[in-house]
Design brief:
Structural class: mainly alpha
Helix content: 55-70%
Strand order of the largest sheet: 1-2-3
Strand content: under 5%
Shape: globular
Number of strands: 3
Number of helices: 20
Order of helices and strands: HHHHEHHEHEHHHHHHHHHHHHH
Radius of gyration: 27 Å
Length: 494
């Protein structure tokens, strides 16, 4: 073993030994670093939580140290001169996902254990008892996870989280009589958890509905569903029917392992493809701020909050609502489908297993409500998008080569997603299984398309305006009206 590796190994060993010795001293009870023996039920719960956190974080420390030693040893064994030029190193998408998700999972595990161990928490929950059980509401957010990782990954990670919550609250129900109620913070667009409510409720994992569910209705969805009393009553009946069916008729067993494994693979690939396009493509931010009405939306102050959390042009700082709203206005609707096409293409890339994997995806579509609903929403978003009109917005990008390049990438991913839907569902035409929605779009869009063309021209004039021109206010008002018109025509944009 080289001397450098030996020195590093000895230093690491010494550090670990000191940490273990400290843990031994700490475990000595009174006189050590740990608190003394608990003398009350509350103190006992705090003591148990402390021990849990100490052991958990200690194991993480040992794991990180072991991985670090392994890395150094493998690197040194390469015996390459320090000054030598090596191959270009690219990051590992899987590792990025792991070290992004792992801390969240660790905190959730610690929090779920510690929260109900804190003095008075269980008693407080029991005081909220309305019947046989006390109830804990947990809200699920869809928007920012979609903006960060794409629609498939967002929905899949939420689905997995719901399964974990059911397992946790099954134990809490037995021990303390506390049951779970999920609160879905759904927006209007598919990219923010929107879509038909009936299918969305039936697509929930087994054990998550249990006779009740909470959800939000936002944006233009409120007016389209509840402005008319008769239509509003019909929509409420639909929610009640879906809740009853999900409670009484949904199978209690989870999806087969082959389904879950396939969804995980697709999610990882979809995440990578989405991040590559949106966050890693040079010039994408400039394209977004030029080829969508995001700047006009921000200036018009038509939202309840500023469009961005910080005074920057970074997509990371942009709020999810204007992000999705802007893509909907230019008829791309990118947050509702981006990444899925590349994920399916990669999943089916191996010619030897392509036939079996495609058969598995088709079986998932027929037998798994979660996957079927997700694909149904993708089908709707693709049907409502129009890349012919979207290309008009590319004319607003001052750097023509940049506009052409980025739009080419978007168009290619859109085509991959469209092809993937055709492969899995067997439907060559979008919305073939939803004739009423297809007919509605066919009737609405001839009125909607001219508004998009007007909006492009108004945005061009507004961006090249002269200060003090008396016509600026009229142009700005026209953009505002066009935004409202397009949102009303698309219906689920909020």
């Amino acid at each position: 073993m080289p001397s450098g590796v030996r020195r590093f190994a000895l230093a690491t060993f010494a550090t670990t030994a000191i940490a273990l010795a400290t843990a031994v001293v700490a475990s000595a009870g009174n006189g050590g670093f740990l608190p003394g023996d608990p003398h009350s039920p509350n103190a006992d719960r705090i003591h148990s939580a402390f021990i849990f956190v100490a052991i958990f974080t200690g194991l993480i420390l040992l794991g990180v140290e072991a991985a670090l030693i392994l890395f150094v040893v493998k690197y040194r064994r390469g015996r390459r001169a320090r000054t030598a030029e090596g191959p270009q190193i690219h990051g590992s998408t899987k590792l990025e996902i792991i070290w992004t998700v792992a801390p969240v999972v660790v905190l959730a595990l610690i929090g779920s254990f510690v929260f109900y161990e804190l003095p008075g928490i269980v008693e407080m929950m029991k005081r909220s008892r309305t019947g046989e059980f006390a109830e804990q509401d947990i809200m699920l957010g869809y928007s920012d996870s979609n903006k960060d990782g794409g629609t498939f990954t967002s929905n899949w990670e939420l689905y997995r989280t719901e399964i974990d919550l059911v397992e946790l609250f099954t134990q809490l129900g037995r021990e303390h009589g506390i049951v779970l109620r999920l609160f879905h913070g759904r927006g209007g667009t598919v990219g923010r958890g929107g879509g038909p409510s009936f299918q969305a409720i039936l697509a929930q994992p087994p054990g998550t509905v249990n006779g009740q569910i909470r959800l939000t209705e936002q944006g233009e969805v409120i007016a389209s569903k509840y402005a008319n009393p008769e239509i509003g009553r019909r929509n409420l009946e639909t929610l009640v029917a879906a809740t009853l069916e999900a409670t009484l008729l949904t199978p209690t067993k989870s999806a087969p392992k082959s389904f879950l494994d396939a969804a995980t693979q697709i999610s990882d690939a979809s995440f990578a493809a989405y991040r590559k396009l949106v966050y890693e493509t040079p010039g994408f931010t400039d394209y977004f701020f030029s080829a969508t009405p995001i700047r006009e939306i921000a200036e018009l102050n038509i939202g309840s909050r500023p469009a961005s959390r910080k005074a920057s042009r970074a997509i990371e700082d942009l709020r999810a609502i204007p992000w999705g709203f802007s893509w909907g206005q230019c008829r791309v609707a990118l947050p509702g489908w981006c990444g899925f096409g590349s994920a399916i293409e990669g999943y089916l890339a191996d010619g030897k297993t392509r036939k079996e994997r495609l058969a598995l995806l088709q079986r998932m579509h027929k037998q798994w409500p979660f996957f079927r609903t997700l694909l149904s929403n993708l089908d709707m978003v693709i049907a409502k998008s129009d890349l012919g009109i979207a290309q008009r917005y590319v004319e607003l990008v001052e750097d023509k080569r940049l506009g052409k390049r980025i739009f080419g990438l978007i168009k290619a991913e859109w085509q991959r997603t469209n092809d993937a839907l055709t492969l899995i569902t067997g439907e060559k035409r979008r919305l073939a299984s939803n004739a009423s929605l297809a007919r509605s779009i066919e009737h609405r869009f001839p009125y909607l398309d001219p508004i998009n063309h007007l909006q492009v021209e108004l945005m061009r004039r507004y961006r090249h305006r002269r200060e003090g021109d008396p016509g600026n206010e009229r142009v700005q008002r026209g953009i505002h009206i066009s935004i409202n018109g397009i949102a009303a025509g698309l219906r689920n944009t909020g």
